[in-house]
Specification:
By secondary structure, the chain is an alpha/beta fold. The protein has 2 domains: 50 residues, DNA polymerase, domain 1 (Orthogonal Bundle), CATH 1.10.150.530; 285 residues, TIM Barrel (Alpha-Beta Barrel). It is built from 13 helices and 12 strands. The chain has a 10-stranded mixed beta sheet with strand order 1-2-3-4-7-8-9-10-11-12, with helices on one face. Strands 5-6 form a two-stranded antiparallel ribbon. It binds iron/sulfur cluster. Iron/sulfur cluster binds next to helix 5.
Length: 358
Amino acid sequence: MSLAELQQLCAEEGMPKFAAKQMCDWLYAKQVDTIDAMTNLSLKARGRLKEIAFIGRHTPVDCQVSKDGTKKYLFEIENLKLKSEISQERASQDLNNFNFQFSPFNSKKYVEAVYIPDGDRATLCISCQVGCKMGCRFCVTGQQGFHGNLTASDILNQIFSIPETASLTNVVFMGMGEPMDNLDAVLGATEVLTAPWGLGWSPKRITVSTVGILPGLRRFLEESQCHLAVSLHNPFADERLDIMPVQKAYPIADVVALLKQYDWSGQRRVSFEFTMFGGLNDSTRHAAELVRLLRGLHCRVNLIRFHSSPGTPYRTSTPQTMNAFCDYLNSHGIICTIRASRGEDIMAACGLLAGQKR
Ligand code: SF4
């Protein structure tokens, strides 16, 4: 809950307004996990809070450790059926011209978060939905269909309930789900992370990714100062549609046109994620079209090696091809880097999150 939501709760329960600030301090600065620990609230207030509220901490039910130090945490999500019903109703309003995938409610109620230590940085890649509606053909999460939205509390729990919380330098919303399709919860979570009454992080420490859901993206650009990462993967509309159904409703050209209306020379950055598939999107023709598409936009491109997974027909690009693609972009004025791959041996790398219990 935000400070404003806690103030509302205090008003409803006849508690003094300053108790909301005290609760924020216990929840976010001290990060206590019981209401009893909030010792500067009156006994009566604590008793009432225990009747109507809970802290919302759930420790991960599993952790897999990669040989490179990456850790994949599995969280169980409670009350998912209710959330799914709400999401389904909203989704049909929001995305009525986009034929997304829905799965029947079943036992799948897990999400994953991936902890990636790297020198003096430690990044946590978190999830915002159970499964995903977007159905990107190369993504294990996308092939599961959609099972429900996480709440802001479920999202924050991934950050607060791992042993490495205090060492985190960055959070990226690049796990399971599409952030712009669950934007209220994502913005609720980023507000807690960045507000002075919350964790007080700079928004520069947070990156939110999207395949380019335009209504959500427009709102995000107005309301958030966090970095943005757009999953691009192919600059040609027809070829992108083959791997990303979202292209039909929200063409990448429209997404880039919207982004060009904003100033990206300040603190907030936009990057484009480009997963490289052998023989599919890694030619000079693709590099040239990417340069044409992004011309005039202050941005960077991250190349990601495709991680082959069971059932996908796609191949990995060779290191030589990736280097040549990267050099082409850099020599044509677009800052481009090849992202190191992490946690592949524990199915924790990009596009491999399945949210399944061992
Ligand atoms: Fe969803 Fe992202 Fe996977 Fe696409 S790549 S299906 S948006 S989780």
